[in-house]
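> example.struct
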């Protein structure tokens, strides 16, 4: 339970009142996960892959002031891990794309507004370099 003072003005008259409202405050949380993940018959640390977001499964209300919310990840996923391999290990915090094939993941990683911005800036840089080269007095080309 929280309280706040609310001031309102109606027809030139100012009124002040105390308003009571309720919010759920997070007191704590606990995360339990496995130590290893098995991917293509290779065991690796849990933290090497960015797991998909959790799903809410249940809320248990102990009283009017206490409730517990439970979230879980599925035990098995199908998808693509986008990573770099080095000495039979994947890089840390490799993103995981659930329910996507390799082709779909590559399409997602190699398209979008960022790619268009890169190519536009690259073309502007090349044109500026050519114009700058032509604008300068290039007598060394005549030697």
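> example.seq
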């Amino acid at each position: 339970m929280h309280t706040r003072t609310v001031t309102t003005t109606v027809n030139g008259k100012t009124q002040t009142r105390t308003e009571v409202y309720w919010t759920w405050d997070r007191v704590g949380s606990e995360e339990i996960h496995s130590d290893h993940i098995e991917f293509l018959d290779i065991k690796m640390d849990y933290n090497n892959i960015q797991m998909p977001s959790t799903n809410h499964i249940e809320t248990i209300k102990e009283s009017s002031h206490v409730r517990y919310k439970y979230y879980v990840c599925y035990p098995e996923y199908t998808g693509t891990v986008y990573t770099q391999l080095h000495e039979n290990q994947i890089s840390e915090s490799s993103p995981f794309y659930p329910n996507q094939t390799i082709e779909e993941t590559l399409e997602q990683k190699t398209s979008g507004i960022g790619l268009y911005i890169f190519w536009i800036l690259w073309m502007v840089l090349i044109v500026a370099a050519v114009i700058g080269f032509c604008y300068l007095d290039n007598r060394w080309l005549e030697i």
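> remarks
Helices lie at 102-109, 113-135.
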